[in-house]
Design a protein that fits this description.
single chain, alpha/beta, Glycerate kinase, domain 2
């Protein structure tokens, strides 16, 4: 029996690597002779950089950048010298996890630090970049990133706009004359885990703004401001990407990546599976176990367990999902190749009680599953 263990992280509880190791312990307790392969995965959000570095043996580098509120922070990025490829995770610079709940301010947070990560990659001589979107504290459409790379966002009087998405309501001119020329030869692929457009009821502001501190009034303000940004961008570059699936990822960073970097937007899980040679791992496996914090109907938009199950289905392998919780619509995942799905809780418990027990619960669930294989 060869078991491929490829979970995402369990938010606020376990990294993907730790989750895979907990699963492996459960398998080996029941079947000591089983072969297990741990392949931590991610879908483009927080933890994706760690998954890529672990899988490719890329070099982890650090530089000081601005966080979402303009404060200095030490951020990591990955450098795969053999492929001249940089791994840039938005959340390292502008991630929500770096702000306390009281600091969340979708009106004014900025992606400037992401631009600083790009500058480091360009200075190293990167020819290709994988931009990992997700986990952002921002809703600025990527304008902060662009300004770090030389662009200027100006109001009607020619004054530079302050940081943040709300300020884009006053955008009159987008000056790209000093945008770093090295970007024109950089092949950028942006990993997204959602298919939302930039604007409207399913847009960046309405769907993701509230978790970044936006009130209902703030959401309306931000949506209008991003609309202005889209208008000026279209007039400046001659193309309009506001309705592109994934444009609303990470507060509009999907829009910026496509409009200004000519980036290809791809489901993050597909991009990361490609980097880790996932098809080769599947070819050696008998069963696959994956998981993350929550499995629900929204998982079909590109979350790790669904990306894994689709790939395993093509390979004819069974897939078991272990999730912290099963939410509305999770049953739709059966149509995507999931063979079975289980929640981790072994009795009534609050989230606060469950989080510190996640590794224990993962090991216990996997131990129980492994017991069934004796009868397969």
């Amino acid at each position: 029996m060869h078991v491929l263990l490829c979970p995402d992280s369990f938010k606020d509880a376990l990294s993907a690597q730790d989750a895979a190791e907990a699963m492996a312990k459960g398998v080996l307790r029941r079947h000591p002779d089983a072969k297990t392969t741990c392949c931590p995965l991610a879908d483009g959000g927080e933890g994706s950089l760690d998954a890529l570095i672990a899988a490719t043996q890329a070099e982890r580098r650090h530089i000081e950048v601005s966080d979402a509120l303009g404060r200095p922070r030490r951020a990591a990025w990955g450098w795969l010298a053999a492929q001249r490829t940089a791994f840039i995770e938005l959340a390292e610079a502008s991630g929500l996890q770096h702000l306390t709940p009281s600091e969340r301010d979708a009106l004014h947070t900025s992606t400037y630090g992401v631009g600083e990560l790009f500058l480091a990659a360009l200075d190293q001589g990167a020819e290709r970049a994988l931009l990992l979107l997700g986990g952002s504290a921002t809703n600025d459409g990527g304008i902060g990133m662009l300004c770090a790379l030389g662009a200027r966002a100006l109001d009607a009087e020619g004054r530079a706009l302050p940081p943040g998405g709300a300020a884009l309501a006053k955008l009159a001119t987008l000056d790209l004359s000093a945008l770093d020329p090295r970007l024109s030869s950089l092949d950028v692929q942006a990993a997204v885990d959602v298919d939302n457009p930039l604007l409207g009821e399913r847009g960046a502001s309405a769907i993701f703004g509230p978790q970044k501190g936006a009130s209902a009034a703030d959401v309306a303000t931000l949506d209008t401001a991003l609309g202005r940004f889209a208008d000026v961008t279209a007039a400046t570059i001659g193309a309009d990407y506001r309705d592109l699936p994934g444009a609303g990822a990470a507060g509009g960073m999907g829009f910026a990546a496509r409009a200004f970097f000519a980036a290809t937007l791809r489901p993050g899980i597909e991009m990361i599976m490609e980097q880790v040679a996932f098809a080769e791992l599947l070819a050696k496996a008998d069963v696959v176990i994956t998981g993350e914090g929550r499995l629900d109907g929204q998982s079909l938009a590109g979350k790790t367990p669904i990306g894994v199950s689709r790939a395993a289905k093509r390979a004819g392998l069974p897939v078991i999902v272990l999730a912290g919780s099963l939410g509305d619509g999770w049953e739709a995942c059966f149509d995507e190749g999931v063979s079975a799905a289980f929640a981790l809780a072994d009795g009534p418990m609050t989230l606060e009680q469950a989080l510190p027990r996640t590794a224990e619960l993962l090991e216990a669930r996997t131990l129980s599953l492994a017991g069934l294989w004796s009868y397969g």
